[in-house]
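Task card 7
Instruction: Convert sequence to structure tokens.
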Amino acid sequence: TSTTPENVGAPLNSPNDDFAYIYNDKKKSGYFSSNRKGGKGDDDIYYFTDNEVVNKKCEQAVTGTVLDRDTREKISYALVEVFEKGTSIKEIQTPSSASFSFQTYCNSTYKIVGVKEGYESHSIIFDTTEDPNVKLLLNLDLEKTGRQNQDFVITPDRTIININPIYFDFDKWNIRPDAAYELDKVVAIMQQYPQLMIEGTSHTDSRGRDSYNLQLSQKRAESTVKYIIKRGISSHRIYARGYGETQLTNQCENKVKCSGSEHQMNRRTEFVVLNPEFINN
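Output:
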């Protein structure tokens, strides 16, 4: 008699070719064949007990969503291809939810490429960690074909990432939902330009003591940078620096009466490109 196939999950199932699963219910052990890493040849036979593979490799889950880089809307039915050491090991057709997931080995380097008609392809190179309990979140942000490059604002003095201002509530440094939306754009641009080095510059309004505002701006800068690093950007590529109230955008200095909205214009974070020579490379 035949039964419905069942995915037994990790560690028996892996990103590679696993087959010939045999299980002895009385002994609670069995065998299977696989061409996974760590074997002696191509297809090797593995022994396991109670679904624990002897000398099994550490594996880590990766999940993500394919998104329109500008609108942040989900892009359904895109193709996600997974590469290891330059070789394609898996292709995933995203469903209507635009989500994807796959298993990787710990302490390894992979590349994923997102493709969809009407969009430029986009790739991300990432490293897995040594903790199999950590689930990596990697969104693929695709840019529509033919869109003019509006990623940066370039002036004689500096180059900044072109996003809407990141605002904070008074005396706070938590990431608001509107701020998270803009920070995701920063992540997408840094993925597109993997050599860019960025400084997250945070500013306060003039209310409060100057020394306190300097400390507050540093906390805000660090908050935005931590958000970006958690989404896969290396900590070596982005730095946090708070300027307090030293770079106001309007007339609202100490002892100047201003409205709440005018003060809010000064509570912002901008992302300054430290090596703009790489933008056109």
